[in-house]
Amino acid sequence: MFILCGMCPKEGHNYSIRELLLSSLHDRRCQADLCFLFKVINGYVQDPELLSLISFNVNTRRTRNTEIFNIPFHSTNYGQNEPITRILRTANEHSNNLELFGISTAAFKKSFERF
User: Fold this and answer.
1) Would you list the DSSP string of 50-87?
2) Cα–Cα distances in Å, from 46 out to 40, 41, 56?
3) pLDDT along the chain (115 residues), means of 10
4) What is the pTM of this model?
5) Distance in angstroms (rounded) separating the CA atoms of residues 47 and 53
6) Whose CA is closest to 85, among 38, 37, 47?
């Protein structure tokens, strides 16, 4: 890294990522998770068993709750971090900035620039 960019290695990983204009692993994982969820919901990935694991949150009254999905309860960390639960939790965290229906895949990927 030092030879290529002239940076001192002691600056740290986050500094190097910012200087090279790269996304962090966490951000890339969130984007990949949301793209996969978008494709499952909109039928680009056709798997009825996977689609049956996704439970939508339907409010009967207007509330402040803007979460799109119901997340199943897990009593262990292992269960809380399983892929489908992690994906739904990520979607709920970004639900204010997320449009999952009625747009193309390219437009959905472009929407990541907002967050």
Assistant:
1) HHHT-EE---SS--S----EEPPP-SSHHHHTSHHHHH
2) 7, 9, 18
3) 56 73 85 95 93 89 82 92 94 88 89 73
4) 0.78
5) 10
6) 37
So what's the pLDDT on residue 3?
52
- Contacts of 8-13 with CB under 8 Å at 24 or more apart are none
- Nearest alpha carbon to residue 57 among 26, 28, 100, 115: 100
What lies within 8 Å, CB to CB, of 42 at 6+ separation is: 100, 101
Closest alpha carbon to 68 in 84, 86, 49, 55 = 55
What count of residues does the chain have?
A: 115
Which residue has tokens 């090279």? 20
